[in-house]
tRNA/tmRNA (uracil-C(5))-methyltransferase
Amino acid sequence: MSAPQFDPSQYDAQLAEKKQRLHDLLAPFDAPAPQVFESPREFYRLRAEFRLWREGEDRFYAMFAAGDKHTPILLEDFPIASQRINELMPRLKAAWQGSKALGFKLFQVEFLTTLAGDGLITLCYHRPLNDEWQAAAAQLASELGVSIVGRSRGQRLVVGRDYVVEKLDVAGRTFSYRQPEGAFTQPNGTVNQHMLNWAYEALGQRSDDLLELYCGNGNFTLPLATRVRNVLATEISKTSVNAALANLEDNQVANVTLVRLSAEELTEALNDVRPFRRLQGIDLKAYEFGSVFVDPPRAGMDPDTCELTRRFDNILYISCNPETLAANIAQLNDTHRIKRCALFDQFPYTHHMESGVLLTRR
């Protein structure tokens, strides 16, 4: 993880540049002005990863500028990270300095926290972990009020839970999310909550079914499922699928069928290219899909998946890369138009942005 250029005095100017960039990319498609959702200026990032750097007898949290892995930026705190992470950083440092069982050959630390106050710390080592480490980690976990995961080559030891629990409010309902260690989660919880509410409103209340591609741990699945009759959701990551299934059960959401397929594989299944054993017992033709929701990786949708979405009257698209979003919209522009769009500032002080569009059939 490279260090961002943290300067709250520049936030408004940087956000204005992002808004203009999104406007320029979507202008060829006659997009309406984007609704802009700002981030908190500080303490917004719920996860952080640090290398440890030795200076004399001490070791420090360290980050690096992009493209430079040899000149560390030594840190005592990290103002873009959550207040919980900033509170944990000095206490963890004191623990590894005061305990050989915890500090010996420790080279990397990862924090995962939630708006709800939960916390998990991953400690990475260049040595095997033994009973002495586990006893010290258990005591530290109790003192800090967190779970701890220890990792070394061929080992993964869990003290407490290997996930945190987030609580997010969407349209007056609180949803609970298990977020596993090592799996993708939205880094900016406040902006994620804005995204969920925007997507909920953009989809609207419907009497037909929803297809969701790239569903992850069910971040969007849970609230969107309350807007439609049934949902067929797909995700390829086994860790994310397991978390999504747990989240569906925890929130008593019963109208979602989740299959572990990539978007490309589901496209083949819907096009009758070939059958998939993981779809056994699922009648794809029984669904009456009126909308599709996609939240693809930075590369966007591949051409075949993009072509698949053309079948649906409504395409709700969340993107972490506006360039690939624009490329996908160009493919769909002859049949669909942009009805709504939004900018979500997940990543202040960087050029990255999250955006959303609702495309409806012309």
About this structure: The mean pLDDT is 95. DSSP finds ten helices and 17 strands in the chain. Residues 8-41+188-361 form a domain with the Rossmann fold fold (CATH 3.40.50.150). The first helix runs from residue 11 to 26.
